[in-house]
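Final report, closing paragraph on structural work. Over the funding period we assembled a curated collection of sequence-structure pairs, and we close with a single example.
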Amino acid sequence: MKPYPSYKDSGVEWIGEIPSHWDNSKIKYETVVPVQYGINISSESYVDEGIRFIRTTDITDDGKILDKGVYLKPDFVEEIYKTKRNDLLISRSGTLGRTYHHRVEDELTYGGYLVRFNFGNDKKSRFVFYFTKSKNFEDWLSLNTIQSTIGNVNGQKYSNLSLPFPTKSEQKQIVSFLDHKTQKIDELIENTEQKIDLLKEKRTSLINHCVTKGLNPNVEMKDSGVEWIGEIPSGWGFPKVRYITSIEYGNSLKEEDRIDGEYDVYGSNGVVGKHHNSLTNGETIIIGRKGSYGKINLSQNPCYPIDTTFSIEQKNTKHDIKWMFYGLGVLRLDSFTKDSSVPGINREEIYERYLPLPPLPEQQQIVDYLDEQTQKIDSTIEKETQRIELLKEYRQSLISEVVTGKIDVRDWKE
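Its predicted structure, as stored:
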């Protein structure tokens, strides 16, 4: 799209030039109410019904409010803390710079990690909202973050944020343009996310079928005796895990004790760092024991499983280690826990599970097939994930170009 006919220096390094007829201003001169901090309150005050209480974690990156949340009793919330139409909430701590533009009449209230401004009308508030989605605002945050235990930018700093303001008619046109374009981009992102979810479901379904039914659709079947597994090929065994492998506990290795090296350090959710030596000697299955319990990873090289995990090495089983990896993945190890303080699973619970077990040659055939098919699915998921990242980058780039006047949308028509 074309640029404006002429530009001037904005006087702000992280904004650069702006159209000659635009003005520079600060948020504190444009808001109709001074900056207002939210309520500092503990989770003990949350209730199931009442006034929705907005926390930083309730706001998505693109400025929407999550459907599920927490509430406060109406008589607990003073009038000053109730949102008004066209309020702009900005997070000042935690996930910095997340913003929400309140465009409806419903009253909400908000937490102390959020600050509130209001610019008097929908288009102006919406314009400032879009500015907070720009790369320029991201750069400003980086320059103004106070590094303490967690980064924060207080209400005074937000009040002194400089940004360019076009005329009222241009604000209206810019907002209409960005509402239209970002909606299209968001729809593409949502469709791509749905495609990824379907691919993941397909991957899980494929593994479950092959591990419990095999590759031959005409093979004679028998009842496994386990409802969610159903029938398995008649030539397969169905022993408890304890009879086919040995599960080892990981070792404690605090982050400050790790010495950078070639070996992956595994926690319950996957790789958490590197270390100069390993705890295992070869290909290793890692099972989350605490936290992300039941999650299963496979390291093709020696690694260091820490004390929130279990591990299985090829030396601990007579069966194909990759088969064990696929097989354990269908046992729903993340479906139960007996530790209420820290979610977890113990080794005996895994040992008592039954695992479909084909003869070793058939194990290897199934593994080869699953490796090939899951690699194709994983490759497609990776491409679709990259597509989402590119769409998000394009979204931010487009917003940045428009709200700083690098492109002229005055003649745009939907």
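The two ends are 15 Å apart (CA to CA). The mean pLDDT is 92. We thank the funder for supporting this effort.
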